[in-house]
C-alpha cells in the first residue's frame, strides 16, 4: 500500500481530527530491554500509512507521543501488549485508549487457535498478508522498499478487522469483557516492562 517515510517523528498535524489509528512497531527482536524499538507505522481509518524510523538511540517524537496518549484517539493494534510495552520503555508514555485485534480474536474466534494477523486477516477479510520481511534487519540505517511496504501493509487492515471482530464479540455477548481486557493492556505492558513478563500474577501458587 502507499506510504510515507519520516525520520524521527510524524509530521505536524498529519492525523489531526482522526478518531482512531492503526499502529504497529518493528524491533530488533521480541525481548524487552534487549531489543530496541526501530520503526513505528501508523494509519488512519482511510488513506496512506506513515512510517516513522527512529533516530536511535534518541526517541524524541513529540507528535507521535501526543497521539499515543490522546484520550480522544483509539489506538488499534494486533498483539498490542508488546507494542504498548515498547512505547512505555522507549518513549516513556502510557498508550491509551487501545484496542487489540489479537485479544478480540481470542475472545470471538474460540473455534480456532490461529490468532496471528495473517490467519485472522485471511479468514475475516479474505486478504493474504505477506510476513516475509518480519524477521529482517529493522535497525538498518536505510530501510529497503520491501521493508517499508511490509510495514505499511501491517496496519492496512486493522480498522476493517476491528469492525468484523466487534460484530462477532457483540454477537457472542463478549464485548464488555473484551473492553475490560483492552483497558487493562497498559497495566499488563507495565508489568512486562517491570519484569513480570513471564509471570501470571493471577495464577494460584
Explain what the structure shows:
- The chain is α/β, with parallel strands linked by helices and 205 residues long.
- It has one domain (3-195): 2-Layer Sandwich (Nucleotidyltransferase, domain 5), CATH 3.30.420.
- 40% of the residues lie in helices and 16% in strands.
- The protein contains 7 helices and 6 strands.
- It has helices spanning 62-69, 80-91, 101-108, 117-125, 145-153, 158-171, 175-196, and strands at 3-7, 20-27, 37-43, 49-53, 74-77, 98-100.
- Strands 1-4-3-2-5-6 form a 6-stranded mixed sheet, with helices on both faces.
- A hairpin with a 5-residue loop joins strand 3 (37-43) and strand 4.
- Helix 2 packs across helix 7 (175-196), helix 3 runs parallel beside helix 6 (158-171) and helix 4 packs across helix 6 (158-171).
- The longest helix has 22 residues, at 175-196.
- The radius of gyration is 16 Å and the shape is globular.
- The model has no long low-confidence stretch (mean pLDDT 95).
Amino acid at each position: 500500500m502507499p506510504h510515507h517515510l519520516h525520520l524521527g517523528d510524524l509530521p505536524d498535524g498529519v492525523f489531526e481530527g482522526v478518531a482512531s489509528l492503526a499502529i504497529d512497531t518493528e524491533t530488533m527482536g521480541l525481548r524487552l530491554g534487549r531489543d530496541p524499538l526501530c520503526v513505528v507505522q501508523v494509519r488512519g481509518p482511510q488513506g496512506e500509512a506513515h512510517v516513522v524510523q527512529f533516530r536511535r538511540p534518541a526517541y524524541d517524537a513529540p507528535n507521535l507521543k501526543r497521539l499515543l496518549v490522546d484520550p480522544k484517539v483509539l489506538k488499534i493494534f494486533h498483539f498490542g501488549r508488546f507494542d504498548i510495552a515498547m512505547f512505555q520503555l522507549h518513549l516513556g508514555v502510557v498508550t491509551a485508549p487501545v484496542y487489540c485485534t489479537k485479544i478480540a480474536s481470542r475472545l470471538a474466534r474460540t473455534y480456532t487457535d490461529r490468532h496471528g494477523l495473517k490467519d485472522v486477516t485471511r479468514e475475516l477479510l479474505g486478504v493474504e498478508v505477506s510476513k516475509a520481511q518480519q524477521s529482517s534487519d529493522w535497525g538498518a540505517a536505510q530501510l529497503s522498499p520491501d521493508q517499508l511496504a511490509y510495514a505499511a501493509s501491517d496496519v492496512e487492515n486493522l480498522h476493517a478487522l476491528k469492525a468484523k471482530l466487534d460484530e462477532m464479540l457483540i454477537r457472542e455477548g463478549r464485548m464488555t469483557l473484551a473492553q475490560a481486557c483492552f483497558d487493562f493492556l497498559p497495566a499488563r505492558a507495565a508489568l512486562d516492562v517491570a519484569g513480570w513478563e513471564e509471570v501470571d500474577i493471577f495464577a494460584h501458587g
